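sry for the spam today, last one i promise. struct tokens for design, 101 residues
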């Protein structure tokens, strides 16, 4: 079963596809930064249980340093807060992004 975030992004992809223009230059682009933290990242990688995540979990501190958790992009962006402690659910955040699209 797909997670709420996966369902939200599938919906977002559908909206973008339905409204897409003939060239990428005509489509407004947005950088979406996914905010996370170490606790959330470890939990989600462990729960996902994929072999490709084993090296990430084995060297978790280094992986987190490379991910630059907590460092927002310098470029203009919108934020989706993926932390377990986020004040709004992923569904609500995706719905907000869709309304802004």
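last one done:
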């Amino acid at each position: 079963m797909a997670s709420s975030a996966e369902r939200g992004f599938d919906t977002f992809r559908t909206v973008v596809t339905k409204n897409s223009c003939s060239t990428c230059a005509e489509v407004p682009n947005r950088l979406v930064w996914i905010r996370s933290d170490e606790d959330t990242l470890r939990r989600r990688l462990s729960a996902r249980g994929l072999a490709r995540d084993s090296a990430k979990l084995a060297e978790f501190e280094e992986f987190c340093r490379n991910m630059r958790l907590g460092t927002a992009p310098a470029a203009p962006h919108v934020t989706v807060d993926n932390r377990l402690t986020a004040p709004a659910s992923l569904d609500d955040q995706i719905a907000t992004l869709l309304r802004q699209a």
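Strands lie at 32-35, 78-81. ok im logging off now
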